[in-house]
Amino acid sequence: MAFERTYGEIPGYPPGSTFKNRDELADSQVHRPNQAGICGGKDGAESIVVSGGYVDDEDYGTEIVYTGQGGNDPATKRQIADQQLTRGNLGLARSQIDGNPVRVIRGAGGDPKYSPKAGLRYDGLFRVVDHWHDTGKDGFQIWRYRLVALESADPPPAGTLGATGPAARTEATIQRLVRSTAVANKVKRLHEHKCQVCGIQLATPAGPYAEAAHIRALGKPHNGPDVASNVLCLCPNDHLLFDTGAIYIEADGTVRQAGTAAELGKLRLIHGHSVDWAQLAYHREHHQP
Amino acid sequence: MAFERTYGEIPGYPPGSTFKNRDELADSQVHRPNQAGICGGKDGAESIVVSGGYVDDEDYGTEIVYTGQGGNDPATKRQIADQQLTRGNLGLARSQIDGNPVRVIRGAGGDPKYSPKAGLRYDGLFRVVDHWHDTGKDGFQIWRYRLVALESADPPPAGTLGATGPAARTEATIQRLVRSTAVANKVKRLHEHKCQVCGIQLATPAGPYAEAAHIRALGKPHNGPDVASNVLCLCPNDHLLFDTGAIYIEADGTVRQAGTAAELGKLRLIHGHSVDWAQLAYHREHHQP
């Protein structure tokens, strides 16, 4: 790398800092490019601008479903071509797996509920918690990213719970987390904590360990069901590979490596735990680059 | 198992519910044993009582450093023998790796800052985030557990950051998280994301993936330093095995399996990343059962 990226806040520009235009924003280094919505490359992404340039963006304040860059006609703001997992899009995926925070800048033109009336505003650090692709409103492939404000709460450990909750948990939220853990525990116990992809059973002094991977993620915008048939029992390595789309599972149970399509074996099935094949199709459709 | 454990809240007993004595508490099912401080076994622990029975307990309100059971003279409250990772102690470790919540009941006799003046009070659900052993104030081995209130915040993903922060993050806390991620990223890049234990480099569509494992954990009560020499680059599976004490690393770099002491290979070292061997000794001393 020719330079080190700056993750985190830029001294002198706390959340709430405002900018008249993109030139002023670029000068501050809070978001360096003059036009692009994502400041990033294959080594990671450090900042994004949310300003209504993409019809598929969704803004919920402390959570944002953000559209990747490319394939967009700036005049009409419509998608006119497929997006690829390259440049800034790859950078946001990289920042997710590295756990690097992303500076979020909102501009006039974004959702009026959360955006400034004029100019641009730095709204603090967010963490990328998910990425996948979808067919956008205009019929082309888009890459999508779910970002959650750092000030709100970190997502729960990936191994245990798929949903993220706000920091001030209501009692209902806590009971939901507990139920979700119960589903996860049931599936892991049925498989005796053996990974359904590689068969390993990790032995620890506290007993065997495995993780419950939701095939279709819980929560916005996937809204997968929190039931045993939407859960796989995986070792942490295969959980990571499955969640990032590095491996996928075909309709006949063949586990394949993304890109090469190399066969890695068959999904291990047992009596008492039915897998929902429609959710595995959803996973293939949304995570294969 | 002869019965299913009940994790989470007991209907009719919200946080703040009070009990005159242990019999009334046991009748409510919030904590079933009449005497033991931990309700649990090898399949998990569902509740604990914190009431000043162990000299090594530390109560910080939303965080508790709890002492395991056994080896204790109830008359003097002093330790008179080593504790083992069995029964309730094993149960709390199991609840950590399963992500199951633990009901916490405080009783008169505990830290006066957080405990009821008389009787017992149910104080809500906590998550076990760490366990290790130590030499207690009385010179015997004790098992220790760090519990964090669910209402406060979930710990950050294990792979990225070792410290937990309160839900309402101050700017200083956020900057600390960002710095911690920078240290982690540096170590992972130096190792080209290859695991220092097994050598695997997990390939994902967003690039290679590894995790930064703190050898001596950050934060209370270990207070490990957030520097590259206190970090190993590990795959998620070996990270889990290292953190749970399932594997340990000897002074000559030999990686061994806990219990059997079987040799699993040598820690992979590279120029540019010095490992602090004193921290690896600390890990051995506190995580080997």
Description:
Two copies of one chain form a homodimer. Chain A is of the alpha+beta class. The first copy, chain A, has two domains: 132 residues, PUA domain-like; 117 residues, no CATH class. In chain A, 20% of the residues lie in helices and 27% in strands. Chain A is built from five helices and 15 strands. In chain A, the strands form four sheets. In chain A, strands 1, 2, 3, 4, 5, 6, 7 and 8 form an eight-stranded mixed sheet that branches. Chain A has a three-stranded antiparallel sheet with strand order 13-14-15. Chain A has a two-stranded antiparallel ribbon with strand order 9-10. The longest helix of chain A is centred in the middle third of the chain and has 20 residues. The first copy, chain A, is elongated. Chain A starts with 17 loop residues before the first strand and ends with a helix. About 6% of the residues of chain A have low confidence. At the A-B interface, helix 2, helix 3, strand 9 and helix 4 of A face helix 2, helix 3, strand 11 and helix 4 of B.
Give the topology, please.
The structure is a homodimer of 289-residue chains.
Chain A: E1 18-19, H1 22-28, E2 38-41, E3 44-50, E4 58-59, E5 63-67, H2 87-98, E6 101-107, E7 120-135, E8 141-149, H3 171-190, E9 202-204, E10 207-209, E11 211-214, E12 231-234, H4 236-243, E13 247-249, E14 254-257, E15 263-266, H5 277-287
Parallel strand pairs in A: 3-6
Antiparallel strand pairs in A: 1-7, 2-3, 4-5, 5-8, 6-7, 7-8, 9-10, 11-12, 13-14, 14-15
